[in-house]
């Protein structure tokens, strides 16, 4: 669980509410960052495996 500290409240008609726009923005940014990290890992794995396969193919020839 990751703790995010951010001002996500607004006062509307004397009521304290979550600021849905700020909350949505933070959630989307967090999800996209996690997705990018996972995509980067997959890209590095792909590059590593493709290079390894090329070397093995060359060694067999």
Structure characteristics:
alpha+beta; 1 helix; 61 residues; rod-shaped; 2 strands; single chain; two-stranded antiparallel ribbon
In short:
With 61 residues, the protein is of the alpha+beta class. It is built from one helix and two strands. It has one domain.
Q: State the order of secondary-structure elements, H for helix, E for strand.
A: EEH
| Averaged pLDDT | 86
- Read across the widest sheet, the strand sequence of neighbours is 1-2
| Weakly predicted, low-confidence segments | none
Q: How many strand segments?
A: 2
**Helix content percent band:** 55-70%
Largest sheet: 2 strands, antiparallel
Q: What structural class do the secondary elements suggest?
A: alpha+beta
Q: Give the C-alpha Rg.
A: 22 Å
Shape: rod-shaped
The separation of the N and C termini measures 50 Å
Report the portion of residues in β strands.
Answer: 5-15%
How many separate domains? 1
List the helices and strands and how they pair.
Elements: E1 9-12, E2 15-18, H1 20-60
Antiparallel strand pairs: 1-2
Explained architecture:
The chain has 61 residues and is α+β, with helices and mostly antiparallel strands. The protein has one domain. It contains one helix and two strands, in the order E-E-H. It has one helix spanning 20-60; strands spanning 9-12, 15-18. Strand 1 (9-12) and strand 2 (15-18) form a beta hairpin. The radius of gyration is 22 Å and the shape is rod-shaped.
């Amino acid at each position: 669980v990751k703790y995010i500290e951010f001002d996500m409240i607004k006062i509307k008609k004397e009521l304290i509410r979550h600021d849905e726009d700020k909350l949505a923005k933070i959630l989307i940014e967090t999800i996209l960052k996690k997705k990018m990290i996972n995509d980067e890992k997959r890209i590095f794995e792909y590059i590593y495996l493709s290079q390894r396969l090329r070397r093995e193919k060359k060694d067999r020839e």
